Amino acid sequence: MKKRKPAEKFSLSTWKDYRIGVAENVVGTIKLSEQVGQQYRVELKPSDIDIIGEKSIVQNQNYDSEASDFYLLFDIDIEYRSWGIKGIYINATTVAGSVFINIWTDGEDETTEIDCSEFELETDVEITSDVISIQSLVVDVENRKIICS
Predict the structure, then answer these.
(1) CA 136: distance to chain centroid?
(2) CB of 139 within 8 A of CB of 116?
(3) For every one of its 149 residues, what pLDDT tens digit does the chain have, with 9 covering 90 and above?
(4) Is 127 in contact with 115 (CB distance < 8 Å)?
(5) What is the Cα gyration radius of the chain?
(6) Residue-wise burial string across 96-128, b where 16 or more C-beta atoms lie within 10 A, e elsewhere
(7) 44-75 as b/e: b if 16+ CB within 10 A
């Protein structure tokens, strides 16, 4: 019978270092820049954002739409039982960003900015790897909703 080494103590500071280490390993255009209390901040580039529902605003005119960078705060809830962790849930709490709708006609072009900070947030994130983060957004302009995934 082999003798096992004693388990490493898992302190609160070790947990904090682990969470920050996981956050720093995010790849792609997502950059988790800082931890704010028990919340995390993520920056999403326009290429990570889909815009839907803008046709209700433009009403059969020629248009295009684009998004600014979006910044989200989210927290992570861990549901646990006596036997271990039952689930890990991500909840987006705050968003900052805008959608720009450019309408062009024969005469003049018009740009409308829509501030999305008051939109309803819906989080639909599946944890499929060792990175826990929000990686993309769908901004529904017509229903004033943002779906985080």
Answers:
(1) 6
(2) yes
(3) 444 444 444 334 444 444 444 444 333 333 344 444 578 888 899 999 999 988 877 777 788 888 888 999 888 888 888 888 888 888 898 899 999 988 887 778 888 889 998 999 998 887 777 778 888 999 999 999 999 98
(4) no
(5) 20
(6) ebebebebeeeeeeeeeebebeebebebebeee
(7) beeebbebebbeebbeeeebebebbebebbbe
What the block records as the tokens of 78 is 């861990």
> Which residue in the block uniquely carries the two structure tokens 């709490």?
93
**Considering the entire predicted model, what is its pTM?**
0.69
DSSP calls for 62-95 = EEEEEE--EEEEEEEEEEEETTEEEEEEEEEEEE
